[in-house]
Amino acid sequence: MNCFCKIVSQTRSVYTNCMLLKETPRNLKGKKHSSQLWLMRQIRDPYVEKAKQENYRCRSAFKLLQINEKYKIFCPGLTVIDCGAAPGSWTQVATNLTNSHAKSQGPIGKVYAIDKLPFFPVEGATVLGNMDFTITKTQETLLALLQGKKADVVLSDMAPNASGIRAIDHDNIILLAYAALKFALQITKIHGTLVIKVWDGGKSQELEQNLLRFYNNVKIVKPDATRDESTEKFFLARGFKGLKTS
Ligand SMILES: C[S@@+](CC[C@H](N)C(=O)[O-])C[C@H]1O[C@@H](n2cnc3c(N)ncnc32)[C@H](O)[C@@H]1O
């Protein structure tokens, strides 16, 4: 197997995958057990390498790419709000697929990316780093930037710092999910789309029921790039019905 890999070293992915099965990081000494596990997982994860090869800031890009491949949520010209965007791989995907960087002929989209952490600019996106999405001022800033225009797609990959206690982490991510939903209800075009990440738990079903009140179609999606051991899943809500004003 090794020889084969060396012979076809020009097909880097084959070579890399072979190496991934064998390689163990050399610098594990002195690291906490959890850090050792993280390093081992990173080095064995084909999406980590693929992200490097395709210039994505992190492996999460492939989750959104896989969702889009199946459900076609993006096209050139769309306006997208990306909540919990740092370090920016979903933003990269959104700018490419909406043509908000105007690199192709045709309609030019708009992408707004928000995170409570600072992050580097992404060409074609308006990046709002250091801004907590759950704070009114952040949402007012976004509304001002939108200038009364509505969004086609709202994304929330927001995740709290995990405590390791499943029920607490679930509750916290659900709070972020509702913050995204509440904002999406105000600024989404009729027929628009919402993608929300949650870590599964007791409140997921209620969230799904609430999404169904406002969207014609709600699917639970677990892209291949989501790690098998993760409780992460995405609600893909399509066909925004609008809010009744009377
Ligand atoms: C899984 S990461 C997002 C990865 C990103 N989608 C990408 O592809 O690069 C989750 C992000 O949610 C952000 N986040 C958590 N709570 C937030 C909040 N209240 N407001 C804004 N961002 C938040 C975190 O700072 C973190 O960067």
UniProtKB/TrEMBL annotation:
<keyword id="KW-0489">Methyltransferase</keyword>
<feature type="domain" description="Ribosomal RNA methyltransferase FtsJ">
    <location>
        <begin position="56"/>
        <end position="240"/>
    </location>
</feature>
<dbReference type="InterPro" id="IPR002877">
    <property type="entry name" value="RNA_MeTrfase_FtsJ_dom"/>
</dbReference>
<protein>
    <recommendedName>
        <fullName>rRNA methyltransferase 2, mitochondrial</fullName>
    </recommendedName>
</protein>
<dbReference type="Pfam" id="PF01728">
    <property type="entry name" value="FtsJ"/>
</dbReference>
<keyword id="KW-0808">Transferase</keyword>
<dbReference type="InterPro" id="IPR029063">
    <property type="entry name" value="SAM-dependent_MTases_sf"/>
</dbReference>
<dbReference type="GO" id="GO:1902775">
    <property type="term" value="P:mitochondrial large ribosomal subunit assembly"/>
</dbReference>
<dbReference type="InterPro" id="IPR015507">
    <property type="entry name" value="rRNA-MeTfrase_E"/>
</dbReference>
<keyword id="KW-0698">rRNA processing</keyword>
<dbReference type="GO" id="GO:0008650">
    <property type="term" value="F:rRNA (uridine-2'-O-)-methyltransferase activity"/>
</dbReference>
<comment type="similarity">
    <text>Belongs to the class I-like SAM-binding methyltransferase superfamily. RNA methyltransferase RlmE family.</text>
</comment>
<dbReference type="InterPro" id="IPR050082">
    <property type="entry name" value="RNA_methyltr_RlmE"/>
</dbReference>
<keyword id="KW-0809">Transit peptide</keyword>
<keyword id="KW-0496">Mitochondrion</keyword>
<feature type="active site" description="Proton acceptor">
    <location>
        <position position="197"/>
    </location>
</feature>
<dbReference type="GO" id="GO:0005759">
    <property type="term" value="C:mitochondrial matrix"/>
</dbReference>
<keyword id="KW-0949">S-adenosyl-L-methionine</keyword>
